[in-house]
């Protein structure tokens, strides 16, 4: 997910690193081991990062044993679904990135976390050039069906030209990306590896090549006007 995020990192965020300008605001739904918020707290030290997880044991393990800094990451122990719906009712759009990385004990993403009502609420929380990036598992008929249903919901929510699907190299993961008004995910699908490498170089990441982790994205370009 971090590799995909670098590809869609707003150019203004890169320009503002270390300058005191506006840094991105990041929301992680599902904390797990805290890899993603820890990654961004290192490469984007000025970013505002919020992580939401329902499991207090997961939160404790990530902060006490796995190095997630509560000084850098605002952690909310709550049901992410309820938190999103409640926050979307009263908050103005603010997040540049929203990551959804939620799975149950069967290795599946609950249907409520990839349906249209949930994505509609996430869109209300996005900044003008923000993106939603969701990680889903693949590899079985049931999991692949979930990916297809989630893809339909993303297209319905964000529009054909503002959606793309990325498959991770060497892993059974599909990453779905939906963008707000200012970014066309579909139009950027063809050069994700280059964009992610350029962002990593700008941030001084020399030991990590995000481009090799991304298969060519499958975008649905915005229909062109006739004439």
Q: What's the layout of helices and strands?
A:
Elements: H1 2-8, H2 11-16, E1 25-29, H3 35-43, E2 48-53, H4 56-64, E3 73-77, H5 80-90, E4 95-100, H6 116-124, E5 126-137, H7 141-158, E6 163-167, E7 173-179, H8 185-188, H9 192-202, E8 218-219
Parallel strand pairs: 1-2, 1-4, 2-3, 4-5
Antiparallel strand pairs: 5-7, 6-7, 6-8
Helix pairs in contact: 1-9, 5-6, 6-7
Task: Describe the overall structure.
By secondary structure, this protein is an alpha/beta fold. Helices cover 37% and strands 21% of the residues. Strand 2, helix 4 and strand 3 form a beta-alpha-beta unit. The N and C termini lie far apart (39 Å). The C terminus is likely disordered.
Q: Keywords, please?
A:
227 residues; alpha/beta; disordered C terminus
Strand content: 15-25%
Give the mean pLDDT. Answer: 79
Structural category: alpha/beta
Q: Which term fits the overall shape?
A: globular
CA-CA gap between termini: 39 Å
Rg for CA atoms: 17 Å
H/E element order = HHEHEHEHEHEHEEHHE
How is the biggest beta sheet arranged?
8 strands, mixed
Short summary of the structure?
The chain has nine helices and eight strands. It is of the alpha/beta class.
